[in-house]
Task: structure prediction
Amino acid sequence: MPCDLMGLWRRKQGQSSSETAMTKQELAWSLVICGLLMLAWLNMVLAPVAVAAAGLGQVVLSMEDRAGDDYGAGNITYPLHNVFEPGLFDLRRVHVWYDDHHLYFDISFARISNPWNAPEGFFHQLIDIYVDAEPGGYTQPVAPGPGVQFSADAGWEYRLRVQPWGGSQWLDARSDPGKAYPVEVLVLPDEKTIRAGVPLTATDPPHKGWRYYVLVGGFDTFGPDHYRQVKETATQWSFGGGSSADGPHVIDILDTGSGKRNQKAQLSGKNSSPHGVPVILPMGPGVSLPFTWGHLLASLVVLCLLGSIFMYLSCQLPPSQAG
Result:
């Protein structure tokens, strides 16, 4: 095999250069294998972003969230009813882009289900995206349902509400009173991504300088601001692991996973307001490629193979050319 360098070295010790010279067939197979591994690596790293941007519009934000952090400040557990399947509230990626007519928010989860046939194609998720688009803005949410506040350095001007059974809307809060616009919401064919389309007539032109607060909760028609409550102990229809009746009722947020921007640090109140309410920090601008240990392993395999082929070819050169 091309990577068997020790075997190659042993053969060279007892054979002439003509006997060990690499055949055209060996070279062809080496290059084919190398090319296939390179293509596999590129597919694993770049395909998710390419698929997300399939609308061929202008991307303003594309960021991945850590897998398996649908636990709020660290202790939240799912409701006990069997419709609450693992991964329903595990935010995986937020991709924001626009074309000539709409600003699109593609919000991906580990799992989406629709046990009661909501017309939007999903039932469980309640998503609030607050957008800091200009200096100033608000640090309080539209209603106290999520049980959090926002950074004083990044007040919001727009809010996107995404929920099942109607009610999804884009709120422009730059005027008083604010102006609300209906938003079309659907589940994409991958069955893991919810797309909300905001008419560009309802917003200023989006740009890459915008920053975003992405809050994920459970939808409950009877909950505060439609947020499913987080109680101390989980019930059939309520989350468990809460620290107080006032919240936070947020199960996942878009975060970088380090320092004070870590989800646990933010939702546990380490960045709390004077009233003890957790303060959430904005994300963006930026584009991040998905990363897993599989990506790292594939990269190492490709690098090792390329190095092996280079050394293999070098060994085949006559002494006059090798130096």
About this structure: The chain has two domains: 5-47+292-322, 57-287. DSSP finds six helices and 14 strands in the chain. The longest helix spans residues 24-52.
